[in-house]
Amino acid sequence: MNTNRLVLASGNPGKLREFRQLCEPLGLTILAQSELGISDAEEPHCTFVENALAKARHASRASGLPAFADDSGICVAALGGAPGVHSARFAAPNEQRARFADASSGRNMQDARNNAKLIAMLTGKSDRGAHYTCVIVLVRHAEDPEPLIAEGRWEGEIVDTPRGDCGFGYDPHFFVPAWNKTAAELPAHEKNLISHRGKALAALAARLHSVRREA
Questions:
Q1: How many whole angstroms separate alpha carbon 13 and alpha carbon 29?
Q2: Is residue 71's pLDDT more than 80?
Q3: Catalytic residue at 71?
Q4: Region 46-72: what's the mean pLDDT?
């Protein structure tokens, strides 16, 4: 890369904060695509890696800078891997993302609807195994033939009764046996060490260190 600036293909303030903390030791400046007036990309694909790549290429093409994106979700064994890439809008797949983009109350409402649908679909099923997946893709330019790809996976199981008030999304129902807590019961600093996104971020940092040494 011939620049110290990277565009994050997301307007999510939590993701922006985490990525900036990660990349600061590398001397990288992270810009949110919303700060550059770049709209969200379409996510039409059925895999996390394809959606992350589409978002990263979109942001890089619009900005003329290297860009990266993540795509993540929860996969439940008894549901054949669903919600998967549709996790964010599981209960209302046709909802426009913009409707919830600026309102935490709207996001909370959507989370509640997603969780209610998930628990209803698991009624009577004994297999509660699940995992969170996060895939991060970084492109040095929009047509980069060798994007950097980092992945993280977090194993757990789904519980009917929500526990904890930290985190977001499916966290109150995602139980981590090794910690005897749901993801929503873990303080942020502990969750970030073991979560799917934390693992993917660490893997990306390692790849960036390697690339910058070779440059």
A1: 15
A2: yes
A3: yes
A4: 95
Q: Where are the domains of the chain?
A: 5-214
Pairing of strands 67-76, 29-32: unpaired
What does the alpha-carbon distance between residue 186 and residue 167 come to, in Å, rounded to a whole number? Answer: 8
Q: How far apart are CA 83 and CA 73, in angstroms?
A: 7
Nearest Cα to Cα of residue 205 among 154, 148, 155 = 148
d(CA 48, CA 66): 20
What distance in Å separates the CA atoms of residue 41 and residue 57, rounded to the nearest whole number?
9
Residues 6 or more apart whose Cβ sits within 8 Å of residue 201: 18, 19, 22, 136, 150, 152
Range 5-214: architecture per CATH: Alpha-Beta Complex (3.90)
Question: Looking at the predicted structure, is the pLDDT value of residue 102 above 50?
Answer: no
Task: Please report the pLDDT score of residue 2 as a whole number.
Answer: 62
Condensed to tens digits (0 to 9), the pLDDT of residues 4-31 reads 889 999 877 777 877 787 777 777 889 9
pLDDT for the residue 101:
45
Most confident option among 32-46, 48-62, 187-201: 48-62
Residue 66 makes CB contacts below 8 A (sequence gap 6+) with: 1, 3, 5, 6, 7, 60, 138, 139, 140, 141
Candidates 70, 71, 111, 171; catalytic one: 71
Question: Looking at residues 129-149, what average pLDDT do you find?
Answer: 96
Distances in whole angstroms, Cα of residue 95 to Cα of each of 73, 156, 192 = 17, 28, 29
